[in-house]
Amino acid sequence: MKAIGLYRYLPIDDPQSLLDVEVPAPAPTARDLLVEVKAIAVNPVDYKTRAPKADVETAPRILGWDVAGVVTAVGPEASLFEPGDAVYYAGSRTRPGGNSELHLVDERIVGRKPRNVSFAQAAALPLTTLTAWEALFDRMAISKSGGHAGRSVLIIGGAGGVGSIAIQLARTLARLTVVATASRPESAAWVRKLGAHEVIDHTRDLGAQLTSLGRPTVDYILCLNSTDHHFPAFAPIIAPQGKICAIVNTQKPVDLSPLMQKSVTFAWELMFTRPMFQTADMMAQHDCLDEAAALVEAGTLETTATTHLGAITAANLRRAHALLEGGHVVGKIVLEGF
Question: What H or E segment, with its residue span, contains residue 110?
Answer without folding.
Answer: strand 110-112
